[in-house]
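Database export, one record per block. Field names are fixed; values are copied verbatim from the stored entry.
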Amino acid sequence: MSTESAMMPSRTTSEPNEDSVELGDNNTTRTRTNETGWIRLFVHCDQMFGGGLLHICYRVFDVILLLIGLNQGDQTCHISNNLTSTTLTLLVFYLIDFGIIFLNFFRCILPSHHRLTEEEKSEQSRRVSSLRSLFLVFKLIPVLFGIGHIVISNIPQDIECQTMRFCVGMVCFSTILLMIMPPTKPVLPQRRSCRLECFIISFVLFVNGMYFLSVSLAMRNVEQSTCIYGNASSLYTGAPLKTYGSIGLIIFSCTTAIHIINGLISQLCNRLTSGRRIYSYYYAFQYFLTYFASFVIIYYLAAGALFLFHPRSGQPCRLDAPALYRVLLIWEWIRVLTPLVAVPLFLILCCVGVFFGFVLSYCLPASVTVPLLEVIRNWLSSAPVHIPRDPPATQAGIDAIPVVLFSKEPDPYNQTECAICQTSFKIDEHVKKLQCGHFFHSECVRTWLSITGICPVCRHRT
């Protein structure tokens, strides 16, 4: 076997999404299917929509709720001044947001846009995202005003304008929850070990199992009509907590089943010969299913905030079933506060880690601390991280990356596995070598660089 580098053959087409052909060990060709092409398509569409593709479903549903709230017929609303002003202000902000999104979309389909480089397109998309973020900051003013008005003011005995009050409350609370629990963009699926997968599934089973057990016990023997949904009046003026709890049992049972099925399929596909290709197709279905589940949970928790917080605070159902009210209120706070606590806790752990690192450096000899810190650094840097702010590499730059034979090329980093898929390299396997000297599987690094143009290990710009 020659020790010279085996270079990638020239492409026969200029289409960036076409299947590529790689040189094999016996000079035979094999076609590599574009496994994660839908992720690149998503990133492209997200840039065309100014970074608002994930939020369009939420925005449309919010607009529908606000329009339903405005449709009051001939009823005279005693508190219409504040609620109507908040509704109209939110509608104006949503129209501005949609206007920015679709103006950017039409600009992206113009012929002049296609002549821009990838860096210029990414910079243009970032400017549009910054403009939308600015309007989001201003939109928080009517959102916080709406939440304050709904929570502070007492709910009247009649049902006039309660549809508007309910719809505005859903929109305002869901906006805050969406900032706390934003939808995630699709990234390269990470290969987890069986032990880590079992730990994640066990944690999900424990949390959702405790929720299922506590809510089921609290709903037992609750038959009062004040706790059960009967008509629109019980939804707008009351708090049907038993019906709300039953829906929560269905939602979180489904999310638990999704976690278990995804974990089992991931482990099974990683052990099959063509498992990566099968899992890439399933991952698309998994992502959209998870996105839909997150969408439902956001508005479910927003409805729970209306039912459980002041001024409703459970309404008559709280007196008829106090245990059910307390359990649902506790779980509402747990679901909402957990993401808020996670970020400060992570920062605290980082500070503690830095502190103990300095302590170890002074208490232990360098022969112990240096290898230990090097292992930790390599472990942290090898995790694939999605950095949306960094523009993707050009298709020409990706194609120009040389293909070499693993173990036949000098390796100053002593690499043994691909940092993207975390699969060990084989002897004389064809891999791609970046300018920084790191090796990756061809299909892995091609998909990675089409999303962000930096090395996933050392962050070197390709």
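Remark 1: The chain has three domains: 36-188, 192-348, 382-462.
Remark 2: The first helix runs from residue 37 to 48.
End of record.
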